[in-house]
Amino acid sequence: MCAAVYVLSTVTGYVLTSALLLKFPTLLHRRRRVPFLSRHISHRGGAGENLENTMAAFKHAVDLGTDMLELDCHLTKDGQVVVTHDAHLERITGVSAYISDMSYAELPPYLCRLDVSFQRECVCEGGEDKRIPLLRDVFEAFPKTPINIDIKVDNDTLIKKVSELVVKYDREHLTVWGNSSNQIVQKCYKENPRIPVLFSMPRVFMLLGLFYSGLLPFVPLKEQFLEIPMPSIITNLLKDPDNMTRSRRVIVWLADTLLMRKALFNHLTARGIQVYVWVLNDEKEFKRAFDLGATGVMTDYPTKLRDFLEKIGTSK
Predict the structure, then answer these.
(1) Domains assigned to the chain
(2) What is the pLDDT, as a whole number, of residue 58?
(3) Beta carbons of 217 and 23 less than 8 angstroms apart
(4) What are phi and psi of 123, to 5 degrees?
(5) Which of 137, 168, 189, 210 is disulfide-compatible with 133, CB 3.0–4.6 A?
């Protein structure tokens, strides 16, 4: 009887303490200093309105008032850091070659039409700007705009060169970098711990485990940004979403239920960790993300998101 009372009192104390610290995490953790706050984030510069990852796309998004540009980096054969998503050039240029096998001068231009990856059966037709830009071009053109860098391959030289460029252009306070790979994120952090890092995919799973076990309020976190997909948008990517199998629907529902948690988002933001939800492309998705407490939304359509934020009165 005494043992049962002891166990019950211990569990009750743990649950109450966890719930208290979940809601008021600064009782245990010092709130992170937030160098910038991003609500409006342009995915690949706004891949639904201009050719992705081009200077034209970035300029259009910045002119609209985006809070952050999201982009992707690779390394050419001659050691240039270029801004583009795919390691292989077939989809974006029609040329069957890897970026790492070509010098920057040899890179072909983008195709005139590119699929919008996160919007079913949508394409974007570009204007005159079809050049794959250098990362330094973006830094020079937008010196005051926060930039979210996805390091696309596990390459020590690429990580080192990106860090050097960030330092050269005095952007450590305006940059966040990482990848879904935990190994890449660890290398980024080791190379330059002054540049904030994202949660990798394994760390996201760890975060969810800590949250649902009640341990999250007690654990320190080195990351400053959580970027997660909204699983329910999977229907935007399928050619025939009505024919999705029941098991897949259950998986999507379960993932959405586990990830999209207001209590989790509120806890992280209270600790100074920004929460970005991607890649959302309509008002219904924007509203749901912000209602759940997301700090920002990543979109292919920066004009749509700007109009939505203006409509609800929280434009930049």
Answers:
(1) 38-310 (3.20.20.190)
(2) 98
(3) no
(4) -125, 155
(5) 137
